[in-house]
Sequence to fold (287 residues):
Amino acid sequence: MKIAIFNHNRLGIVQHQKVVDVTEVAQWNPEHPSASFLQLMETFETQKPELQKAADQGQGQELSEVTFQSPVPSTNKIWAAPVNYKKHQDEMNKQFNNAPRTAADIKLFLKSPSSLSGPAEPIRLPFKERRTDHEAELGYVVGKKAKNVHSSDAKEYIFGYFALLDISIRGEEERPWRKSFDTFTPIGPWIVTADEIEDPNQLDLKLWVNDEIRQEGNTKHLIYDSFKCFEAATQNMTLHPGDIMATGTPEGVGPINEGDKVRIHVESVGEFTVDVVADYNEYLDKG
Fold:
C-alpha cells in the first residue's frame, strides 16, 4: 500500500496513478498529523482492509493535482549510514580522503530531525561559497519499538520505505552538522508499506540534476544492507516508531546549485523532484 500525506495533512492511498482521501476512514486528525501517524502504524494491520476498501471505492485525484508532503510528519531520530557503497567510498577517498576503508569502520551517524522535509519543498542552500552535494538513498521508517534487534528480524520492525535525499555540505566539520540544515532530508513521495517490498536490498536507485543523470546504483551493493543498518542502530540506542533510517548513497555524488532541479527515483517505491534555492546565511559564510 502506498500511503501519502497531502494537501494540508490529509491522508491518502495512492493507486492507479491517483490518490484517494482516506482521512475519515483512518480516523486521521489533520490538526495532529504526527500523533495520527503513530496511531496509523500501530493499528495498520487491523485498519488495512477498510483502508483498501475506501481506496478501491473512492474517486481519487490525479497525482498532479495534489501537493504531497513528507510522508513521515515528524521524527525523533534520523539515523544515516555514511559511505555505505564501495564505489562511493572510493570516490570520497579520491576527492576528500575521508571515507572508512573497511566495512568494520562504517558507523552510523545522526541527522537533526528538523532537517526532514517533503517532496514538494525546495532544498535551501545555506552557504554561497561552499560545495553542497546530492546523495540519493533508500529510506525507511520504523514501525515498532526496537532494541538489540538482529538483522534477520529487522524486517518485522520496518513500517515502510521511501526515496530519500541526504543533502551534504563538504568540509571538515562533523557529519551531523554538515547534513542537518533545514530541508537537508527530503523524503517521499509516499511510504510503500514493507509488505509490498519483497527485498529492499535489490532496488535500483537513480538521481538526475536537471536532465543529467548523476547516480545509478542498486541496493544490492550496500555494504551494510537495509537490515544490517537497522541492527547497527538498535545496538546503539532504542528505535521508536517514526524514527527514520537513511541507508547510504551509491557513487556519482556531486554538487547542486541554486536553480537546479533534483529528481530521485527508487524502484518499486517512487520518485520526486525538488528545486534548489538559495537561502544564504551571511553570518555562516563569514564564519
